[in-house]
Amino acid sequence: MDRLVFHVDVNSAFLSWEASKRVREGKEDIRLIPSAVGGDREKRSGVILAKSIPAKKYGVKTGEPVAMALRKCPTLYLARPDFKLYENCSRAFTEICKSYAPVIEKFSIDECFLDMSGTGRIYPDPVKTANEIKDKIRDRLGFTVNIGIGTNKLLAKMASDFEKPDKVHTLFPHEIEKKMWPLPVRDLFSVGASTAEKLENSGIRTIGELAKCELGAIQVLVGMKLGAQIHAYANGIDDSPVVGESEEAKGYSNSTTLEKDVTRAEDAYKILLALSDSVASRMRNDNGETFCIGVTVRGNDFKDRSHQRKLNESTNITSEIYRTAKTLFDELWDGRMPIRLIGVALSSITREPSEQMTLFFDEERERSRKVDSVVDSIRKRFGSGTIMPAASAEASLKVGRKHKAQLDITEENKK
Fold first, then answer.
1. Of all residues in the chain, what percent carry a pLDDT higher than 70?
2. What is the mean predicted confidence (pLDDT) over 388-397?
3. 77-79 and 35-37 as β-strands: parallel, antiparallel, unpaired?
4. pLDDT in the model for residue 399
5. How many other β-carbons are positioned within 10 Å of the β-carbon of residue 395?
6. Count of alpha carbons within 13 Å of 121, Cβ hemisphere only?
7. Residues 146 and 166 sit within 8 Å (Cβ to Cβ)
8. pTM for this predicted structure
9. What is the pLDDT of residue 381?
10. Angle at 254 between CA 252 and CA 257, to 5 degrees
11. Helix (H, G, I), strand (E, B) or coil at 217
């Protein structure tokens, strides 16, 4: 039986989710004006996480500093990130997808794969079904998605990146030569800027040219493993399964990829703080604590580098997780390689938290725990945008020192 996979991708997720919330509240649709999500307008700090199409016309880019974006577009409307809203919207569109697919794999907060194999008797027309899912998400939730349809995950994901927004596209094996091969080689999933430059400098400019090259020649250019992968992808070959989620999370992770590489540790720390806050909050919501914290960075060479540390006692405290993540980052990155992805992962999760016995009451730790509890309660009631970690918390979270959780309702939060 032929496989059938859908890839559902939210169009401009963070901005769309913020816009749909505002429309429900009777406010202006910020998708129709120069707008963006991220950072602090008054202090001109932070980075752009998402932008509207009108903002793109001014040259505003995802990942660039807020100050630079405001110089390009002084009238830019800047919305603060609200990751509780994003999690709710992500959960909502995923639930709709689950009502159609036997197996669903969450690929990121704004995209997922649906294994529709074997559903032909229930849904005989895949395109019609995909349009039904797309329209249901738009009509019920107020934001749009693109859906790609293929016989594997690679083809489905490539199809979802065709014309946007609010579209359904197919990319079946017989359509590869017409729809995928003419595309620039850098449009192929997993081909980063550095790899694309090597291929282009060798005269390989389209996906079709890559597909027709001898595998050995590609591996000489970009390495054995990556060469084999992108050559297979260029030919539409991908055997990876759609992996369903387990009932109980065995770990929590968040990562963010920026179009503009991070070159300063200070910028990376802000991202680490927001990622730590996000994963810690999710874990606390599931009554979990972690015994292991990991950090991953991806350089502009598109190679991932990871570092993790096991803890003597479990924790779910945001500031403790951030402090360890920052230490791991400092050990992992020497400042020379520009970074395009940063991730924080919590593993070795326990549902029965325990602390080492001590003769002394750790007042600072208890205070941090209470702060997190209050923050979680406020977010559950009013949303994440009401309170978030201060970007300036870096000053009070020095590695190796006692620290105090510092929170500010006016500073940025980033996942």
1. 84
2. 41
3. parallel
4. 29
5. 9
6. 2
7. yes
8. 0.63
9. 56
10. 160
11. helix
* pLDDT score at 90: 92
Closest CA to 270 of 77, 63, 110, 88: 63
Catalytic residue among 111, 289, 411, 412: 111
Alpha-carbon gap, residue 155 to 80, rounded angstroms:
35
Q: Is the CB of residue 11 less than 8 Å from the CB of residue 145?
A: yes
Of 177, 144, 190, give the one whose Cα is nearest residue 163.
144
What local confidence, expressed as pLDDT, does residue 259 receive? 58
> Residues 237, 240, 241, CA angle at the centre, nearest 5°?
130
Question: 77: helix, coil or strand?
Answer: strand
Distance CA 161, CA 163 (A): 7
pLDDT of residue 395: 29
- Considering the chain, what percentage of its residues have pLDDT values greater than 90? 51
Q: Which residue has the tokens 């909502």?
A: 92
Position with higher pLDDT, 340 vs 325: 325
- 287 vs 126: CA distance, rounded Å: 40
Tens of pLDDT, residue by residue over 25-52, are: 999 999 999 999 987 666 666 788 889 9
Q: Name the packing angle between helices 13-24 and 83-98 (round to 10°).
A: 90
Q: CA 355 to CA 368: how far, in whole Å?
A: 15
Q: What are phi and psi of 251, to 5 degrees?
A: -170, 165
Encoded amino acid at 344, one letter: V
Q: Any catalytic annotation for residue 111? A: yes
Neighbours of 75 (CB within 10 A): 10
What is the per-residue pLDDT for 389?
Answer: 58
Vertex 373 angle, CA 88 and 389, to 5°: 70
Where does residue 285 fall: left (phi above 0), alpha (psi -120 to 50 degrees), or beta otherwise?
alpha
Give strand ranges (E) for 16-69. Answer: 35-37, 50-51
User: If 0-12 CB within 10 Å is exposed, 13-18 middle and 19+ buried, where does residue 77 land?
Assistant: middle
Closest CA to 275 of 411, 396, 389: 389
Q: How far apart are the C-alpha atoms of 79 and 21, rounded to whole Å?
A: 12
Q: Decide: 375 and 409 in contact? Cβ < 8 Å.
A: no
The answer to whether 66 and 45 have CB atoms below 8 angstroms apart is yes
Write out the two tokens for 7: 């890839």
Average pLDDT, stretch 288-315?
Answer: 88
